[in-house]
Amino acid sequence: MAVQTIPARIRWAVDFMDVQPHDHVLEIGCGTGAAADLICRRLEGKGKMFAIDRSEAGVDRTKQRCAEHIEAGKLTVRQIDLATLRVPVKRLTKVFAFDVHLFWVRDCREEVALLHERVLPGGSVNLFFDTRKPEQVPEILSRTSAALTQAGFRVYIVDSKQPPVIGIIGRR
Ligand SMILES: C[S@@+](CC[C@H](N)C(=O)[O-])C[C@H]1O[C@@H](n2cnc3c(N)ncnc32)[C@H](O)[C@@H]1O
Question: Which end of the chain has the least Cβ crowding within 10 Å, N or C?
Answer without folding.
Answer: N
